[in-house]
Every structure is written in C-alpha cells, then in structure tokens.
Amino acid sequence: MGKETPSIRKTLAAASKATTLRIHFPEAAAREAGVRLSTAASKPAPTLSMSVSTSASSPDARYLAVSIDLDAPFPSFPFLGPILHGLHVDLVLDAAAADDDGFAPLRSAAAAAVADEEEEKEEEKEEEEWLVPYVGPGPPRPSAAHRYLFMVFAQPPALDAAGIRALLGLGTDVGLMTRMRWDQEAFERRLGLGEVLAGSYFLTRA
C-alpha cells in the first residue's frame, strides 16, 4: 500500500538536491522538482528532457520512462498507490538538441527515424511508443496535492517494446486495475533495470 521502493526514495531524495529531468507539457513545464501544475495543464502526454551529464555512456543507448502517482487516493492514506500513469519505451537522447543548460530531449526512436517527415507522422510515432498510454492526473477533490513522479532508466539492449510487454504480462489495453498498486520493484526486477538515471516530480490537486 503506497509502497515507496528504494528507487523511488532515492529518486525523490536526488530530485530535491539537483535537477536531472524536466517534464514538458504544451502549456506548462516542471523544470525542477515539486513544481505545482494544474490538472488541466498536466493532462496531455508530456515530453521529457534529461541532463546530458546523467545519460548512459553509449550514444546508441535507449531509455524508458515510467510515470507514477505516489499518493492515491490520499497522501495520508495511499492504499491504491502507486498508480501507473504511463510507460514510455524505446526513447533516445537527442544530444545534438541540448539547450544551454545541458538538457536534451528524449524522443521516441521511431520518431527520430522519421524526423525529416511531416510533423503529423512524427506525432503518430510518439504515440506508438507509449507502451502504457499516459493518463493525466485525477486526484480526488478532498485530497491534498499528489506527487507525480517520472523516472528514467537505461533500457536493456536486448529488450524492445514487444519484449517489455511480454515480460510484464501487459495486454494491448492496460486498464485501471493493472495500473493501481503498481509494483515498481517487481517492474525493475523483471526488466533487469539498473539505477535510475534521471527523475523528477510535480504536484497537483483537484
């Protein structure tokens, strides 16, 4: 119930000291941990940018990002949490597009491969790489603000989207029951993931 695994605790602690991940929505952004966003602003699927200094050593590395609500339904009694809000796989770091702060966008490998095509097709590819589609925050109205945590890992080279889906036993449609009480520790163990490379969270309430 509301279990904060070692990786979650370490990510929260690290995010309070330094920014390694930025979360971008069309109308808002969490450029540092603990930023308060409205539920409306954080409803669309976000894009992520990661500090180049924390990336994997190989330029060909792929990444996966998991998004979870740590505080469902209430921070004081999170018996439904964590809730999985999205799982994005087959991401690549576009280091050439790094900004002046050293943050580079994480893009789907499929989108990067068709970067010279029209924007509409690129957006379609981005959607395909959400193995578990992103669902925006929906904390109940009486609740205090929830923490929505994003964690980025190096994706094991032998794993692709189909392999990850099989290891996690996920169907084509991932319903609420699968998302609730998400076992982050088992997720990391089944995929053979290493340490969290980058992470951050934002806060929102109804």
How does this model look, in words?
This is Putative protease inhibitor. This protein is of the alpha+beta class and 206 residues long. It has a single domain (6-204), classed as PEBP-like (Phosphatidylethanolamine-binding Protein, Alpha-Beta Complex). It is 22% helix and 27% strand. The protein contains six helices and ten strands, in the order αβββββββααββαααβ. The protein has helices at residues 6-15, 109-113, 119-128, 161-168, 176-179, 184-191; strands at residues 21-24, 29-30, 35-36, 47-51, 63-69, 83-93, 103-108, 130-132, 146-154, 198-204. Strands 1, 2, 3, 4, 5, 6, 7, 8, 9 and 10 form a ten-stranded mixed β-sheet that branches. The two termini are 22 Å apart. The mean pLDDT is 91.
Number of strands: 10
Q: Approximately how much beta-strand content do the residues carry? A: 25-35%
What is the number of independent domains? 1
Q: Which segments are poorly predicted (pLDDT under 50) over 5 or more consecutive residues?
A: none
Number of helices: 6
What string, H for helix and E for strand, traces the elements in order? HEEEEEEEHHEEHHHE
Assembly context of the chains? single chain
Query: Please, what is the CATH homologous superfamily?
Result: PEBP-like
Briefly note the structural class of the backbone. Answer: alpha+beta
Q: Sketch the major β-sheet.
A: 10 strands, mixed
Helix content: 10-25%
Mean of the pLDDT scores? Answer: 91
> Based on CA inertia axes, which overall geometry fits?
globular
Query: If you compute it from the alpha carbons, what radius of gyration comes out, rounded to the nearest whole angstrom?
Result: 16 Å
Which CATH class is shown? Alpha Beta
Return the CATH topology.
Answer: Phosphatidylethanolamine-binding Protein
InterPro entries: PEBP, PEBP-like_sf, PEBP_euk
Protein name: Putative protease inhibitor
GO biological process, one term: regulation of proteolysis
GO molecular function, one term: phospholipid binding
